[in-house]
Design brief:
By secondary structure, the chain is of the alpha/beta class. It has one domain: TIM Barrel (Alpha-Beta Barrel). The strands form 3 sheets. Strands 1-5-6-7-10-11-12-13 form an 8-stranded parallel sheet. β3 and β4 form a beta hairpin. α4 runs parallel beside α5. The chain is globular. The model has no long low-confidence stretch (mean pLDDT 96).
Length: 332
């Protein structure tokens, strides 16, 4: 069984919240034809998309063509909207969560859903996480790498992580509102350098701050192979050793990083082998970033191309690990 853990979806009938709430920052989907649309933000083109981003039928056609049994579908990060007033951000989150839940319900053997929550308000985020997990039957929550410039170790998020730990909610951390935006626009470095760096900062914040120590059952997966984080771990460990006055944990950062999960979207078998050697093959989930331009085609190619790993390990990487991470067990 092949499970693509990292895919994004957006409802075609996404409401124009600029008109509804009188602001211009909301992402708006402007359909150009039956097979394509523009995502507009503040009146500017954010991304051109095809019907793959909203059509379950099109997705299933692609899955069949590329040998994918199940997609895990999650919101497009530009919709997180942590900057918005809480009632408006909650409206956006609930609209998407209901759409994802309905898509899964209509195709339960092909899709698994992740929801989104308004992290700028901890109580609202916890309430919506509870609704996603226990009413909408979603399998986890996708969150961004920062909340309005605050790293994930900001004290305001402690209760959110505490409840995710208590309820055994899998969290998928995806970069958004990346650091150094003013320096990464040229050459599209926002996507190739900014996002991996942003992810590294989010992961480092969690292992250094003590969050992973306080909540030992917290299940967290980082997009894009963890970005640059896996390769920075030795430097983080060295900092922990030489700066005892700022330590927050009893163990090295690498000790807590072993609890993390990572998708496989790093394109290179050498990097896949590095992730396996450092974290164990059980912590790697196949993910493609469907349906966007930087996605891996076909999903799982980098795993298929990785030498010197057994067929059983590849089965884990290609599907079984994702289902276990999501607390789902299926035969295949």
């Amino acid at each position: 069984m092949r499970v693509d853990f990292h895919t994004h979806i957006l409802p075609l009938d996404l409401p124009d919240l600029n008109k509804k709430f009188g602001q211009s920052r909301w992402p708006v989907l402007e359909q150009k034809c039956s097979c394509g649309a523009d995502i507009m933000v503040s009146g500017k083109l954010f991304r051109e998309v095809t019907d793959q981003v909203w059509s379950a039928q099109k997705r299933i056609q692609d899955m069949d063509a590329e040998g994918i049994d199940i997609q895990v579908i999650s919101p497009v990060p530009v919709t997180f909207s942590y900057w918005a007033p809480i009632d408006q951000a909650l409206y956006m989150a609930q609209y998407q969560n209901y759409f994802i839940s309905e898509t899964v319900n209509e195709n339960p053997h092909r899709f698994i859903g992740l929801g989104t929550v308004p992290l700028q308000n901890t109580k609202a985020a916890i309430d919506e996480m509870e609704r996603c997990m226990f009413q909408l039957n979603l399998a986890g929550i996708e969150i961004g790498t920062n909340v309005n410039g605050e790293n994930l170790d900001t004290p305001g998020l402690n209760e959110f992580f505490e409840m995710a730990n208590k309820w055994n909610v899998p969290l998928f951390v995806h970069p958004w509102e990346t650091l150094a935006k003013e320096r990464t626009a040229r050459h599209n470095f926002l996507y190739t350098v900014g996002m991996p760096s942003e992810t590294a900062l989010a992961a480092a914040s969690l292992v250094w701050s003590g969050i992973m120590e306080r909540f030992p059952n917290l299940k967290i997966c980082f997009a894009h192979g963890g970005g640059s984080f896996p390769y920075l771990l030795p430097r983080l460990d060295q900092g922990w050793k030489v700066w005892p006055d700022i330590r927050k944990t009893n163990e090295l950062p690498s000790y807590y990083a072993k609890r993390f999960y990572f998708d496989s979207l790093n394109y290179d078998p050498v990097n896949i082998k590095y992730l396996i050697d450092r974290f164990g093959h059980e912590k790697i989930l196949m993910g493609s970033d469907y349906p966007f331009l930087l996605r891996e085609i076909p999903p799982g190619k980098v795993i298929d191309d990785t030498p010197d790993i057994s067929k059983e390990i590849k089965k884990d990487l290609l599907g079984r690990n994702a289902l276990k991470f999501l607390n789902l067990e299926r035969e295949g």
